[in-house]
Amino acid sequence: MNAMPPIPIARPWMGEAEAEAARRVLASGWTTQGPEVAAFEEEFAAFTGAPYACAVSSCTAALHLALLGVGVRAGDEVVTVSHSFIATANAIRYCGATPVFVDIDPATCNIDASLVEAAIGRKTRAILAVHQLGLPCDLAALSAIAARHALPLVEDAACAAGSEIEWRGSWQRIGRPHGVVACFSFHPRKLLSTGDGGMLTTADGGLDRQFRRLRQHGMSASDLARHRSTTVLVESYTALGFNYRLTDIQAAIGREQLKRLPEAVARRRALARTYAALLAEVPGLVLPDEPPGTKSNFQSYRVRLPEGCGQRAVMQRMLDAGVSTKTGVMCAHREPVYAGERWACAPDRNACGCGAGGCRRLARSEAAQDGCLLLPLFHEMTEDDQQRVTDALRAACALEAAPA
Ligand SMILES: Cc1ncc(COP(=O)(O)O)c(C=O)c1O
Fold first, then answer.
1. Distance of CA 197 from the midpoint of ligand 1 (Å)
2. How far is the centre of ligand 1, averaged over its atoms, from the C-alpha of 319 (Å)?
3. Which residue's alpha carbon is at the smallest distance from atom 14 of ligand 1?
4. How far is the CA of 85 from the centre of ligand 1 (A)?
5. CA angle (338, 344, 348) in 5-degree steps
6. Whose CA is nearest to atom 8 of ligand 1?
7. How far does the centroid of ligand 1 lie from the alpha carbon of residue 57, in Å?
8. N or C: which end of the chain has fewer CB within 10 A?
9. What is the pLDDT of residues 202-252, one digit of tens each?
10. From 85, 154, 215, mutation site for ligand 1 pocket: most ligand atoms within 8 A of C-beta
11. Whose CA is nearest to atom 16 of ligand 1?
12. Atom of ligand 1 minimally distant from the CA of 197
């Protein structure tokens, strides 16, 4: 038995300011999609440099609205990765469309842009690119491909609040956006959390208006507009919408979290540097890499285990030492809900007959899921915590790599 307190994989960084913000909203009498949401949107737009930001209930909701917004409909295809949280692929299926999965670049675990062009076919309606674990994907290459094929590029930036890329000579935050729309998550494992929540950023005012209508049942006028109107304003329902509202309680918390975000990102980067120094000598362990022109927010710290080290065995040894870990990012195509005909792998659209995993074309995605490990990473981690994590990992790798 380990006498030390267990080290969790993540822990939100919240305090009295967030509690006070929530209290303020409860006392105000306006608890959903009101003035706090409007203020949060304005502040998030200013943070990312986006002309428009629209708050919703989750990143999944944001992805759904983004794909509908760029015109994805039943029978279409969307090129994306399987190696992502399942919400990425699910959002495509919500539109009645089919995800066409391409493999990842093993160095970054982001979409391999060199495979995208071959995945584009007659039915392709959009490219959905993920900034996995906060590391920006190759937006320059992807936006060039999208432009060549007149396709919209949607960014799944669920994990990437505060991440940066070098874009035409200057550093910019993810979400400006660099595609047509970027979608963020405020789930507790993200650097900015509202409990649950999401945001769409875009430079297209028409799309922003559409997102606002669809997030609230397709209603023609927002509650805020009706509240502020000095003449009677009766709404109509102009499209089949959803209830994807963010509450004012969440938005007020989000505004406080946004103030903390630059410090949160700086802290994650410092923790990542410490991990890199502590793990530099572990034989065969591959540490995360930031390609030139990208700065991750280190939403997670992922390592690739040495060849021959069993992932589950290492995780168990670390858990026995009081350290929580997670496997590499999942692959949607390996899940039962994706068994059958609901996805395709590029470029031959399932020609390898790999419905139930073991996909030759997504071999690097599967290897990353099976061979990587996410280590604990959170704002209030101490030097001792990081030492314990790295000691446990080093010991587990040594034991698992040793010949039986
Ligand atoms: C890449 C990616 N996309 C989408 C989502 C879904 O976000 P949410 O839980 O806010 O719906 C997540 C959540 O972790 C994610 O990591």
1. 10
2. 25
3. 85
4. 6
5. 150
6. 59
7. 12
8. C
9. 999 999 999 999 999 999 988 888 888 899 988 999 999 999 999 999 999
10. 85
11. 85
12. 10
The per-residue pLDDT for range 270-308, each reduced to its tens digit, is: 999 999 999 999 999 999 999 999 999 999 999 999 999
Residue closest to 285 by CA, chosen among 264, 307, 268: 307
Quote the crossing angle between the two packed helices 248-279 and 16-28, to the nearest 10°.
170
The pLDDT of residue 221: 86
Per-residue confidence (pLDDT) for residue 346, from 0 to 100: 77
Considering only CA atoms, give the Rg of the chain.
Answer: 22
Task: Give me the pLDDT at residue 53, please.
Answer: 98
The C-alpha atoms of residue 90 and residue 171 are separated, in whole angstroms, by 32
- Expressed in angstroms and rounded, the spacing between residue 189 Cα and the centre of ligand 1 is 10
| CATH architecture of structural domain 16-259 | 3-Layer(aba) Sandwich (3.40)
Residues 313-370 have pLDDT tens digits of 999 999 999 999 999 999 999 999 998 777 888 777 655 666 556 788 899 999 999 9
CA of 4 to the centre of ligand 1 (A): 32
> Quick one: fold of 260-401?
Aspartate Aminotransferase, domain 1 (3.90.1150)
Predicted model pTM:
0.97
Ligand 1 site, CB within 6 A: 58-60, 84-85, 87-88, 130, 156, 158-159, 185, 187, 198
Return the domain boundaries, the chain.
16-259, 260-401
Residue 100 has pLDDT above 60, yes or no: yes
Q: How far apart are the CA of 228 and the centre of ligand 1, in A?
A: 34
| Tens digits of residue pLDDT in 6-21 | 999 999 999 999 999 9
